[in-house]
Amino acid sequence: MAAATPAADMDKQVDLSTIPISPSSGPSGESTSKDADGKVITVFHDKENFNVKHQLQNKWTLWFTKPPSGKGENWNDLLKRVIDFDSVEEFWGIYNNIVPVSELAQKSDYHLFKDGVRPEWEDPQNKHGGKWAYQYKNKGNVDIDTLWLHIMLAAVGETLEDEEDGEIMGVVVNVRKGFYRIGVWTRTIGKHIPNRGDGDVSGGKGRSPAKGQEVLESIGRRFKEILKLPPTETVEFSGHTDSAHSGSSRAKSKFTV
Asked: Which of 238, 216, 127, 227 is nearest to 180 (CA)?
């Protein structure tokens, strides 16, 4: 991995102009250009000097929560929007130039969410939803950087759910004194969201509660597989409303896999 950005600079925007992406479009939708020898170079050939852009299905935003300084900061003071991206190449350019999770200070978080969705319970697209989460208590024996990378790749690669599910809002990693926690946020808690009024048919419209739970449990199983957890371990799903009422992100789980 390239040299990481100093932790103190995490609230500054990454300069996308340093990421070489051609604006011309190729036959399959990707943007292409050629080097001086007429060769097309992807990020998989050269992570710094590629000249091909592969569009992602959705646009994403990386957010960072910096540790509180003890000066009475609120959530909005701590939460920083780092950068938006919508291509494979931009993702790797960003990933190779930010601080690894293992080097973040305690009480830091990374949030990778779909464009237009803030990583907050109160966001209109999150307020009826919940999250799958797993907590690693033995931090010394956890390759958190690889685990977080794999969860991000699953999110931007749209492999955490089936295309018609429309549940995934974002993924989160929390760095705390005694643990790491990785989470996957969903639009619903398995029930239809009433009175949306925005023409959006994703997130459970027309589903029975049983079907809604089935969809969420499928996401939970995929989440568990990506984390490579043994069958004896469980991941828990809880609703954001329950978490807000309990005053903790560790609300009682609605179901587990």
From this structure: 227
Residue 224 in 3-state DSSP? helix
How many angstroms separate the CA atoms of 169 and 118, rounded?
9
Supply the DSSP symbol for 156: H
First to last CA, the chain: 34
- Report d(CA 161, CA 163) in Å as an integer: 6
Cβ–Cβ < 8 Å for 21, 87: yes
Give me 230's structure tokens. Answer: 């043994």
Domains (range + CATH), the chain: 1-99 (no CATH), 105-257 (3.30.760.10)
Q: What is the pLDDT of residues 167-220, one digit of tens each?
A: 999 999 999 999 999 999 999 998 766 554 444 445 566 788 899 999 999 999
pTM above 0.85, yes or no: no
